[in-house]
Amino acid sequence: MLKFALLVLLGLVLGAVGGGALGLGAGLAWIELFASGGFNGQSGSLVLLTFMPLGAVIGGLAGALLFVFFAVRDSQIALESETSRKR
Q: Model pTM?
């Protein structure tokens, strides 16, 4: 059980960092493609207050789910190998 919790936490942190970085890149691409105004730092505010947090949330959830999938799969493989040894 502790293994699952640690893997979920690790996936959440790594996913949030990666998602934040991807959100930052997506925000910068959005500004370049749609020529958003740069008056008083509006472009920077858009990227840092919209795209980066959204990317971090989506990435964190995806990372946590991915690591849970790997943990469940690993435990199933371990259980199957134990049952084959008992035979």
A: 0.78
Closest listed residue to residue 7, CA positions, set 46, 65, 57, 58: 65
Tell me the two tokens of residue 56.
Answer: 């971090």
Q: Are 63 and 21 in contact (CB under 8 A)?
A: no
Q: Each residue of 36-82: pLDDT tens digit?
A: 777 878 888 888 999 999 999 999 999 999 998 988 887 776 655 55
Domain ranges of the chain: 2-86
What does the block give as tokens for 21? 């970085």
Q: Strand, coil or helix: what is 37?
A: coil
| In the block, residue with structure tokens 């890149």 | 25
